Amino acid sequence: MKVPVCVIVGAGPGNGAAFARQFSRAGYHVALLARGRETLDALVSEIAGTRAYTYDATDPAHAQHVFAAIREDLGEPQTLIYNASTREFGDLDATRPDAFERAWRVNAYGCLLAAQQVVPAMRAAGQGNIIVIGATASLKGSAGFVAFGAAKAAQRSLAQSLARQLGPEGIHVSYVVIDAMVDLPGTRALMPAAPDSFFAKPDDIAESVFFLARQPKSAWTFELDLRPFREPW
């Protein structure tokens, strides 16, 4: 029996690492993709069954090369988690055109490139999972999130289009709205007085993401909102 393969685009020390741990524990081979090699190597040394690939999510040629390497090394991916994002924050006056474009390229264009690499084999198998990690900004554009909000909205719309097209072919596409501050050292430093209950734990987010990858076809979720129990909404 073949070992299932999960690809994580945007594998960092927070949610990306938690996704890798969750799928590794479930017996998957996990391909970790990110720009920074040092972070990738640290994750591979920590998490069994993982393999690192330096990756530029916005480069079509790089997508072809890296996903070909994954297929050669590990096999065809059954699950793609698109976790790549940007931190292009600012209002209209502070947003540079190049920053606006980069936010779209990483969040939406890069998601398209990754999906195009995994869908052919998923079609042939009649099954597969594409899970896109989004944010509240995909649903409402706050004043200080011009680039980020527009990019996440484009990403969500892309995921919805893919879900409508690929669902009848047996491929489950889902979108995760993380309506929370994720519990990381950087976010803790920004809000040192916030209680533990204010933050979303990466391992808890990963458990919900894994749930999406295991849903039976008769009861699929497209959009899943995740927020701490004390978060107002």
From TrEMBL:
The signal peptide annotation in the UniProt record is: none
Read off the SUPFAM superfamilies from this record: NAD(P)-binding Rossmann-fold domains
Identify the Pfam families for this entry: adh_short
Q: What is this protein called?
A: Short-chain dehydrogenase
Its source organism is: Candidatus Thiodictyon syntrophicum
